Amino acid sequence: MASSTVRRRQDSPAPVLPALVSSAIDSGAAERKDALPRKVASLLQARCAKDYLARACFVGIFITENIMHAIFFDLEVDSMVAPALAPLPREVAVCLHIVHIVFGLFGAIFVLVSGFDTAGRTALTKGTSMMLVFMSTITWTWWINRQGVPYWELDPHYFWDVRCPAEKRNRTVHILKNISIMGALTLLQQMAKYEIEALPVRPSFLEGLVTALRPWSFAATLGVQFVALAVLQCLLHVELPGYFAVFALVLSIMAVQAAANLVNSYRDFEKGIDSVETAGDRTLVDGLVSPRTLKVLAAVSLLWWLCYFAWSVVATEFHPIVLSMAALGTFLALGYTAGPAPLKYLGLGDAVVFICFGPGVVAYSCAVLVGRVPWEAMAFTVPVTLLVVATLHANNYRDIEVDSRAGAKTVAILLGRKASLHYYSVLLAGAHVGALVAGYACSCIGATASLLVVPQSLWLCMRIRRDATLRTQDEETAKTMMMFSVALSLGCGPHASAKVTVD
């Protein structure tokens, strides 16, 4: 949804006339740009065909390998990844193999892109980080714990011993090779970081696109979808239409969230709410991308969602839930900050976020995938949604003063500081209690896995009362929401169901 659910933002002290807003924004952005270092040629930028060829040779194997992983996805999950992660359920193996493919593929692409962008060293640091995750996880599942047989249990002989079996020698070579590649990736990453420290430059266009899209805010969508899919497949044993259908659904929901984020950024910038001095969203105030580019990104994201929306309506033969929930979600997402009466500033932000990230999106997802909306899916995703609302409230609680001066009416402002703290604690407690209630109602003893996150929730309740840590409270709440979602998803695994009886 909007960036305020997962990113820190602050608003300007008071509204001004539209003409003055435009003038102030233009001059402020210009001053901000002048204050930033100008672009310089990066030492890591490719300058000739040899440089591009070297990059292509280095990451080409990663791209090829991950394409093969995607083609033989099910086979590799069943024969390699799942045995290496036993006794964890197969769904964990599926998730990890998706991480293998996505991180390896996109990491390699980022490294290639870094040769074209004058500030591509940022792309290089991000790309190498993703490739390091790929290399570490693939090393464990494919070589250290290959097919569930740990390397150290193969044979008592060392790999240099002539009595060492061929299997152990082969695995040793691949493990050492992967360690060498991780060393090379780390070296590249450190070179890029050292150059960033020595030669700071204005953020590149690529960085501006990432900042504008705010991919880190997608955690709110992913957490709810993780739990909903786990309930459908593991707890209710409902057959899903396939990986492609699930991926297309999740990506489309993320697209409408991205559109809402972009609309939020543009509207706050246009109204003068985001200022150079106080804005948490730096996309437009720092000139990372132009307003026109932001509009194009919003249009593309919205078009992607509308195409999937139209397809889903036709594919489900105009299912009333699909049609109504998608239309409602689109209206609320765009009306959060756009329109004559932005819902965000009318005290309706919490309700909008709860509907869009909870019952609304879950009902739509279930209807598209399986043609019905099981009440169990609703019961298990409501606790996660409460943590999403808590993330928004943490942001609004921190910004009570600046929001008040801007004329906004958030729930935090309506409640006041003392009651807002109690409200935040109730949201966290309600998530844990709700998970246990859902587990009891659905005879799923695995729901108790959510209790593993209780210490984290207690820590959040303490840190929100400290001024020194309040600035990042929304970010930490979002992280806790993801931990809670993963724990609850694993709790819905195939061995988590048990008949609950009362003596």
From TrEMBL:
Primary location: membrane
Q: How does it sit in the membrane?
A: Multi-pass membrane protein
Q: In which pathway does it act?
A: Quinol/quinone metabolism; menaquinone biosynthesis
Q: Does the keyword Transmembrane apply?
A: yes
In which compartments does the protein localize? Answer: Membrane
- State the GO CC annotations: membrane
Coiled coil ranges (UniProt) are none
* Membrane-traversing stretches: 52-72, 92-116, 123-144, 216-236, 243-263, 296-314, 321-339, 351-370, 377-394, 423-454
Sample GO molecular function, one term: prenyltransferase activity
Q: Name one GO biological process term.
A: menaquinone biosynthetic process
One matching Pfam family: UbiA
Task: Report whether Kinase shows up as a keyword of the record.
Answer: no
* UniProt keyword list: Membrane, Menaquinone biosynthesis, Transferase, Transmembrane, Transmembrane helix
InterPro entries reported in the protein's UniProt record: UbiA_prenyltransferase, UbiA_sf, UBIAD1
Q: What is this protein called?
A: 1,4-dihydroxy-2-naphthoate octaprenyltransferase
